[in-house]
Amino acid sequence: MKIRAVIVEDSRLARNELKELVKKYDDIELVGEAENVDMGFELIQEQRPDLLFLDINMPEKDGFQLLEMLDEVPITVFTTAFDEYAIKSFEYNALDYLLKPVSEKRFGMAFEKVKAILDARAKEEKSTVKKLSESSQIFIKDGEACWLIKIGDISHFEIVGNYTRVFFDEKRPLLYKSLNQIEEKLPGQVFFRANRQQIVNTNFIENVVPWFNGKIKLQMKNGDEVEVSRRQSYIFKDRMSL
């Protein structure tokens, strides 16, 4: 994907110089430019760019004020003719600070920093497990039987050796996945880890019964009973109380 960039700079000459530098990189897409802070604010709100080339010294409002106006700040590279702002720019978490006129070599160094950050973000997003919602559907195959079932219709999960048994309606198929793998994807506001062997859907709990040593037992709507470990019993009580 291309890196979407905007330029906020009051000097037309400086904007044109930056645009010429941007053109040398196929993976940057310039999606807009603005000549003052207010126009820049509107542009950023509309385009949601990945990268902002921002002049510091502009009339009426400066580049620092623009950053203070934003709720979500793009990766920012300051561009200015005055090196006196360098320290302050890093107080605003700027990625880099380019002195005008910006050389092609110095621009390239800044862009390498931008790519490194965006690449790291992309890897982090890929490694993050995507959570399912109650309305999400999963496909289950057990032997010759197949089901397409909503997550919210599953009452609970239970470890059976190297498999996990899935409980819904009157069905009890087995999935060749660990309970930990399944738990990572389940909506945490609905499903609760009762013990090392079982996860329950709290919407399917019929009754909660006090048990031994501070533990509780959950009576499910399908008639099954799930004993909650002592540690998880305390967590369940805290979670389900007002």
TrEMBL record:
Keywords: Phosphoprotein
Gene3D superfamilies named in the record: 3.40.50.2300, LytTr DNA-binding domain
Domain spans labelled Response regulatory: 4-115
Lineage: superkingdom: Bacteria
Keyword Phosphoprotein: yes
Keyword Coiled coil among record annotations: no
GO MF entry, a single one: phosphorelay response regulator activity
InterPro entries hit by this protein: CheY-like_superfamily, LytR-like, LytTR_DNA-bd_dom, Sig_transdc_resp-reg_receiver
Segments forming domain HTH LytTR-type: 138-242
Protein name: Two component transcriptional regulator, LytTR family
